[in-house]
């Protein structure tokens, strides 16, 4: 019998369980103690065994269930048979109880592009800043990010033995975002969150121009968007290339689903069709509220240096 659920909602429900499984893998690699670190383009651009195993798990699990999807993962991995132990076949039934927004009800599998960051915040992961780490699965339709899942494997890891370790946040445009408590920074306070591992003069010039009350330097694009929706930061400012489509796709959906805005540093929307270049060459500017304040303060010199 054909499923009564739409392709999009089935995909989000599966992505939820698949991201959870990836989170388990991310924790297991640390517990086993061999990170298997490889330098990609530089000493701050790393890949670990957890990035590799989590991507294999996510991409193979998605492709088995949804063979017509376009799936783009961060890591360049050799094509090889994936161990059955890495496959997640489950789906999160709570998501299937939610209605699919009508504008997405006729979407077919082959129309969707999935952007996978199996482990966002790898540098911080290798340094033991474990709650900076997220697993990101973003879903795009007609070039627009419309649904996403963020697993945070080490959420609560310092909260004591009774706290539940890890959480999963999910969202669909037109439906909302779930798995966290929405909170805002007090009105009039400007707290900027930005990179801790990939800074340069452009990044700091742009942050300074925001005239912030406080600056948080933390790892991960997913982690910084979580700071925005939980009232820890009011703007995510990254005036540099380096961040890629798999970093922004899922986080952008969660932010947009609760009324926030993510663009490049010029104010342009990001596009997620399969042909798009992976690099967000013109940086990232994201806020939950007050977008215009931050956009108006980006210096012309920074804009000139960052070509979309
Ligand atoms: P960060 O805020 O430094 O954690 O960066 C957010 C995401 O963009 C992470 O996935 C980083 O790996 C990536 N990223 C940012 N800048 C660079 C860079 N210069 N080289 C490689 N990856 C970067
Ligand atoms: Mg990343
Ligand atoms: Mg990554």
From TrEMBL:
EC number per UniProt: 3.1.3.57, 3.1.3.7
UniProt KW Hydrolase keyword: yes
Broad enzyme group: hydrolase
GO biological process: phosphatidylinositol phosphate biosynthetic process
Gene3D superfamilies found in the cross-reference section: 3.40.190.80, Fructose-1,6-Bisphosphatase, subunit A, domain 1
Molecular function GO terms recorded: 3'(2'),5'-bisphosphate nucleotidase activity; inositol-1,4-bisphosphate 1-phosphatase activity; metal ion binding
Entry's family note: Belongs to the inositol monophosphatase superfamily.
The protein, known as: 3'(2'),5'-bisphosphate nucleotidase 1
Organism classification: Eukaryota, Metazoa, Chordata, Craniata, Vertebrata
